[in-house]
Amino acid sequence: MKLDIDGLEVLFPYDYIYPEQFKYMCDLKRTIDLNGPCLLEMPSGTGKTVSLLSLIVAYLMAPQPEGTPRRKLVYCSRTVPEIEKALLELKRLMAFRARALGQEEPFLALGLSSRKNLCVNPEVVKEKWGKAVDAKCRSLTASWVRAKAANAKVTRHGRHDTGRRGRSQGIGPRRVAPTPAVAASQDDDEDDDDDDDEGHAGSDHGAGDDAMDVDEADEAPPALCDWFEGLENADESAVLPMGVYTLDELREWGKDHMMTSIVVFDEAHNIDNVCIESMSVDITRPILEASSRSIVSLTEHLDRIRQNDAEKLRNEYERLVEGLRALADARETNEVLGNPALPDDVLQEAVPGNIRKAEHFIAFLRRFVEYLKTRLRTQQVVAETPAAFLMHLREMTFIEWKPLQFCAERLSSLVRTLEITNIDEFAALNKVAMFATLVATYPQGFMLILEPFENDNPRMHNPVFHLACLDASLAIRPVFQRFSTVIITSGTLSPLDMYPRMLNFVPVISETYPMTLTRSCFCPLVITRGSDQVAISSKFEVRNDPAVVRNFGQILIDLAKMVPDGVVCFFPSYLYMESIVTMWNEMGLLNEVWKHKLIFVETPDAAETAVALENYRRACDNGRGAVLLSVARGKVSEGIDFDHHYGRAVVMFGIPYQYTESRILKARLEYLRDKFQIRENDFLTFDALRHAAQCVGRVLRGKTDYGLMIFADKRYARNDKRDKLPKWMRDGFSAATSNLSTDMAMAVAKKFLRSMAQPFDPADQLGTSLWTLEDVHKHMRAELARQARNVVDDVHAVHGHGGEMGGLEDEDSAMMDALYDDDESSMDVVAYGGGFV
């Protein structure tokens, strides 16, 4: 389908389009033209990703005036499955554009994730922890490794030109971490795998090493990785990185692509929590002990490089005098340790003299670590501001706040100078350096909380020093400043007015879209009481009441009997789920469920959850049916789709409020009230309902899909709770389904499932919830006519109907006739703009 949206030709890769998709693309076009941030709430399962990509790719590929820098797309999502779906949609879109245009377009997309997800080097991926993978991968990608490889005349695939050593010593194949842009090159080189060198730079145990003499080993070129070469080829392409919610990389990337890129935050319903997590640091005793060991290791590395290559230390000193900006420019691609966001004025300053020399900086870190150790010996809870912490630090150690501000960047510079590739052992010290930088840089928006005991065991002394970020806008502000267009979109953003207040920005467009349906394919129900008329709720006072637990279990039993295939249940927390399941087992309720469906449980362990999810899908596929017990804010609630028979019903047991006794949460609530005038109860309810909506929204992944959305808690019957759900979800409620007992809800659910089981012809959606190009034409003419009437009404309101404006009605009629008499057969494309001209 070819659309013309406000002068932009958009190729949509399907023959039909949803009304929501068309309106969504129109608002996206307006947002890009206005060069500002926007908030767009798109219903689940209505093709948000393909609509977004179709419009933005068309914008990127449109002819630009000569000399105009080519814009890029930065597409950000929270999970790997979401990025995989986005890349798949993009692949289909580009194939469609190639067919429609008759030629391939020069367009490159890179799907970025952590090294643990992408690396295929067998020596690297066998590591269990991500930090260990990072350390081994660093040995293939550090700038000094690449420089040595260049001096040794290594080809782009990391092979020695002679190829002699690989063949003569029988070294096995080496795989490198690919990107989608370079993955094809590996298939082309499978026949040459015997020529590859195995192992990592600096390793002492690569295959065949025992057959090499010492001189030959010293001359051996280090192995390289194609990853960075793939990134360098992406200068004129659209880049789609995953994990944007690690905002440091996006902020750094934005320095070189400022105001020329379109940033999309997809599934951004909890973007404020992600921003806060990215700038919060927790310090514990094991971290400080590991930091002390890292300081000893740094001292040893420093002594070695002082003896072998003192010139590197002198060069580093000169860069530090020039300031952090020059230091950041010299960092290239080997950013070994991430640093918090620093204001631009700090980046222009020179590093303080007392930490410029490496030995002085190591002594400085040692003093700071020892100070933190003394603070952790306390037996009382302490809450203080950054200013109070810095004052106490100065009184006890004579450490000023200015050097602390540069700790993270200074440590990163030192690790690069010492050419340390095994950065895993410095992760704890890096966390301490980030703690120092953040506490010295931001006097407001942070709170330091020292908790000496564990929450579940008040007698166990296990102190934790929290540097808690309270202001989400601090992390996202550089993104808004450095990128011209920032699109925040999700299926659950309601209420929309909360995000601009928390993130401190003014959206140019803020819109939520209804879901147009030919048939009601989802049925939201609120169950407030059991069949015995006992109210059900997850409130602390009654959550473990046997009557409440029994009624929760009866809901699950009834659904297991009635609903075909898969049922997904969500609980507010892991602790509550364990408590409920234990009581269900003691009451014998699980045995009743097992008679009809298998039961699988999500756990905090990612590997166990993946196995449970795979077996759950297998049980649904073979007709046995299954129940999946999950947790709101868990892994299953984010990015896992239960489309069609994998989720015919989703139950939200209770309201997923945060743990309100958390001192960090209390500090944030107080800050939101004082800074943004957001009341505590409003934020807690908003946060709980957006996660509840995200959970139940997993059941609906398209207009041909159907399912039950069950809210099992009496508090959902209140309007102040339901009003915070997305509009498309609220529209499905009625007075008859907002306050039900268990038996009444099951009767409604049974009727709904019967109606959904009737034959359904997708052609019935045409003209209502599914548009052809002709339907888009009709909508356009109606929209232009509506805008014309608004203009006429405004003129009449200002000038009246008489006097000089007496002939206006005739002119209006002529204009309206011209709109309606337009020959639609002559329209090859549809044009839609933001206003009537």
TrEMBL record:
GO terms for cellular component: nucleotide-excision repair factor 3 complex. Residues 173-185 have a biased composition (Low complexity). Pfam families: DEAD_2, HBB, Helicase_C_2. It is an enzyme of class 5 (isomerase). It is found in: Nucleus. Its EC number is 5.6.2.3. Residues 151-215 are annotated as: Disordered. Residues 186-198 have a biased composition (Acidic residues). One of its GO terms (molecular function) is 5'-3' DNA helicase activity. Residues 199-208 have a biased composition (Basic and acidic residues). One of its GO terms (biological process) is nucleotide-excision repair. Residues 7-317 form the Helicase ATP-binding domain. Its cofactor is [4Fe-4S] cluster. It comes from the Eukaryota. It catalyses: ATP + H2O = ADP + phosphate + H(+). Keywords: 4Fe-4S, ATP-binding, DNA damage, DNA repair, DNA-binding, Helicase, Hydrolase, Iron, Iron-sulfur, Isomerase, Metal-binding, Nucleotide-binding, Nucleus, Transcription, Transcription regulation. Belongs to the helicase family. RAD3/XPD subfamily. This is DNA 5'-3' helicase. It comes from Allomyces macrogynus (strain ATCC 38327) (Allomyces javanicus var. macrogynus).
